[in-house]
Amino acid sequence: MINIISTWKPLIEVIILWFVIYRIILFFEGTRAIHVIRGIMILLVVFFLFQMLNFEILDWLLARLFAISVIALLIIFHPEIRQGLARLGQRNLFGNSLRQKELDYLLKEIGNAAENLSKDKIGAIIAIEMNDPLTAYIESGVVIDGRVSSELIESIFSRTSILHDGGMVIQQGKITAAGCLFPLSEKPDLNRIYGTRHRAALGLSEETDAIIIVISEERQDISLIYRGKMQNGLSREDLFSKIKELFKAK
After folding, report:
1. Which terminal Cβ of the chain has fewer Cβ within 10 Å, N or C?
2. What residues in the chain have per-residue pLDDT under 50?
């Protein structure tokens, strides 16, 4: 038994190490820190390689560089780390559990509302919660707690509504809140044609795994934003299929 454990121990250690690395990368996915994390992971692999080959000088140098990198990461990216830890503590263990029929209904109503709003040149931003909770953003808005319907969505975003300029949050097939404030993205390369709504959607997608729909009142354009990536010029059918794909992938 001891011999078997000794034989498999290195493999088990490697599997555990790569699992931890994978989870850390997922933890910071969509934040500014992800590129630094990947760099540190490469340094870590090279460090272990140097140890195996007994390169003492390079091993010593890289060990100090790795320690400095970790400290620098904690100092420079402490806001992202704090947000990540908050998400980890609040993460839904079982995720969204919408049934196929409920999901189809939800997407149909959102699609109809998005199409009608874009035709009427009315702007809107709708966030669908996935695994990362949107509780902090719900607290900044007005609680609705209503069943999703295209009529209700259009009413909330109508120009005469006091909730028109904020974001809507949908959880478990219900409109939980509206008039919510989302964090603005600081992407320097974002095209100037995109206004506050698109920046808010990108900002939220950089901090959570929410699926966000944005309707532009200037261009009558429907956009889908997920994990910092934007898809523009979508039809109601495109929106339906793409969101469904994201739910399936989850």
Report:
1. N
2. 90-96
CA-to-CA dists, residue 65 to 38, 41, 132, angstroms: 15, 13, 33
Tokens of 7: 């034989």
User: What are the two backbone dihedrals, phi and then psi, of residue 72, each rounded to the nearest 5 degrees?
Assistant: -60, -40
Give the three-state DSSP class for 137: helix
Q: Residue 218, class by beta-carbon neighbours within 10 Å (0-12 exposed, 13-18 middle, 19+ buried)?
A: exposed
| CATH superfamily of this structure's domain 100-249 | DNA integrity scanning protein, DisA, N-terminal domain (3.40.1700.10)
DSSP β-ladder status, 167-171 and 124-128: parallel
For the stretch 136-145, pLDDT in tens is: 899 899 999 8
Cβ pair 206, 31 in contact under 8 A: yes
